[in-house]
């Protein structure tokens, strides 16, 4: 039982794909005293984080910051742009796509859930051609929005968002494009403006290296326009008042001051030119993903994502052999080695576990995670083809990082 008195020796290895470990530099920034959210210093902080987060989303348009988890920002994206009964085309990449679809239905829009049959769609990114075909068939433009998940955290597959944009354009369809990049942002490449996304939803506790508690809607002019006539009830989530007050760095309600200190620090870390800026960040996570997958392959285990172009730089899903309960392996690893791994969710519960390589990591934190996995798999009686730890060491040693490894200075 975890209590505040629970202090195991050394460092806990939080290798789930979010929340990700919060670096000391961010914890220190968040420990500053809470200030008056209507006072003069606050406006400067507000403007600083709003500018920083725009750079992370790669957008010139407003980004709304909510004191809520990612789920709140999912609701905000839909509530601001849609009317009761509107038809929304959503794509099933995995458990998070399914949860967003459930939320949309509860909110009072009609959803159509497109995807490959069975578990096959949970092993790949979005198949953009299916979206194009469906939109071409929608001659009356009944579909008001297309919703996809950028990085499907339940499986470890990253979708090509530009391909989805092109599919919508090829069908000459006016639907809004809404993207969940809750776990992708700040670890996997993401370009809100260049990819023509109308609303991007994200959260604090994944690639941004912050604790849970704030989430985002990155907007585009077309989404702001849609929000003026959208009829779903919205009050707390309504963009208009927030965007207006944000112009001077303030919010209509009490914002999450200490998390905003952390966000300011996170933006500095992620954008730091000495470490390659955002491109450097993406390159580091691609390389860590390669190293972890080299390890999984050496064990002789299957990777949940079976489409190489969609391998996630954020996490890797590992399928356990038939008859081996992945959750029992996770439990053993947690109890013996104080290492937390992600559980299989929804359709793949018990069949796989997830190793996070998002947020604040380095070669050795990942080597520790792989060592814990390898010891645990062996203790659970899984026959491994070889040493994943050795293979990952060979990969990391043989492939020096293209830019400096450490984000924190
Ligand atoms: C974590 C996550 C969510 C849910 O966010 P919460 O902060 O738990 O509400 C939604 N979508 C994706 C892809 C996620 O990774």
UniProtKB/TrEMBL annotation:
Protein residues bound to substrate: 354
Entry keywords, A to Z: Aminotransferase, Pyridoxal phosphate, Transferase
Residues recorded as bearing N6-(pyridoxal phosphate)lysine in the entry: 206
Domain Aminotransferase class V: 51-270
An example Gene Ontology biological process: glycine biosynthetic process, by transamination of glyoxylate
Known cofactor(s): pyridoxal 5'-phosphate
Origin superkingdom: Bacteria
Annotated GO MF terms: alanine-glyoxylate transaminase activity; L-serine-pyruvate transaminase activity
Family (UniProt): Belongs to the class-V pyridoxal-phosphate-dependent aminotransferase family.
PANTHER family with a match to the protein in the record: ALANINE--GLYOXYLATE AMINOTRANSFERASE (PTHR21152:SF40), AMINOTRANSFERASE CLASS V (PTHR21152)
Protein name: Aminotransferase class V-fold PLP-dependent enzyme
Organism: Caenimonas sedimenti
